[in-house]
Amino acid sequence: IMCVGETLVIEVPQTDEGGDFRYVANAYMDKSDVLSKPVNEIIEAKKAKKKSKAPGAEPDPLLQLTFVALKEGKCVLFVDVSWEDQEEKLCLKHSLTTPCAENTIARIGAIEVEVQKPTGKQDKGSFQWWNGEKWSNKKGPAKKKGKKK
C-alpha cells in the first residue's frame, strides 16, 4: 500500500558476479496511469573497506527502477531480468554447442500495488527495503535466527 507521490524502487544487478555477462531488465505493468513507467537510474555500488590491499572484483553497479504513485487505484507489475542476448558469448566461454534451454530469464513479482490518497501527516524520507522476509529500514538480507551452542 502506497500513497500518491510515494515511490517503489526495485534494484536489479546489471552483470553477473564476474562482470562477464550483462543482464537486461524489463518492467511490465497493467496500469501505467496508477504507477508511472519506471525511471532507470544506475547506482554505483560502494567498495568494501578492507585492511589489506588485495585485488578484488569491482562491485557491480545496480539498476534502480523507480515507480511513482500517480493516482488512486491498483496496479500489478513484474520485472523480468534476462541474459538471453548473452547466450552466444556464454556458449563460447564454456565450450557449449547449444544455448541453455532454461534459466535465461528470472522474474521479480508479480507485485500488486495499491495506491491510496495521502492521509494526515506524512513520514518524509523513510526508505523501506524488502529483505526477503519482511520490510526493514536497513538494506541487506534478513539476519539468520539460530541457536547459539
UniProtKB/TrEMBL annotation:
Bias kind Basic residues: ranges: 140-149
Region (Disordered): 119-149
Protein name (Swiss-Prot/TrEMBL): Uncharacterized protein
Organism (species): Polarella glacialis
